[in-house]
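User: What would this chain look like folded?
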Amino acid sequence: MKTQTKLSLENLTPKDAHELLVNGNKRFVQNLKAQRDLQSQVLATSHGQYPFGVILSCIDSRVPAELVFDQGIGDIFSIRVAGNVINNDVLGSMEYACKVTGSKIVVVLGHTSCGAVTAACKDVKMGHITELLEKIKPAIALAEKEDPSFVCDYHHPEVVDHIAVENIHISIDRIRKESPILAELEKNGEIEIVGALYSVQTGEVEFFPW
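Assistant: Here's the prediction, encoded as structure tokens.
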């Protein structure tokens, strides 16, 4: 598989970028890999990079974006922070990827059995972790608002996964509200902003509807 070039990136649409990720994950689930010469990719990208997408994912060791989407060197920007939460540095990185470099898709990738989400449900308070978890707690509040009977019981995996999904939606909303640059690119059809959930049990990525 060839490395992205400036010309190939310019000819790519957000829909194309989405399909590249979907097909890459299908290969991953099937334990297949696209044929790549990584050393050639190192050389090809040594004077410039043209990644087609930017992925915001959790730091969880089970969710390496390049692997789960079967991408090579120079194909995607990878932003990782516990709980795939949004802050100004993350937004700036996304803006650089899309506005400056020309990436066509922004993916917020959460995952099942998320430790950060579990910690937020537990109301863990520890050093800088406390501040980070505060960014996840609005997802708990949203779940409780949508269903007054909802109880954030971290002993139940389905509860943790539900909060993880709510957290992805909140991150997507924050991107659109807090980054006029990305919001305008999406409005003009130059990029896609989408959420997705990775299953640590199966390796499958489920993309959310636009």
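The two ends are 28 Å apart (CA to CA). If you want, I can go into more detail on any region.
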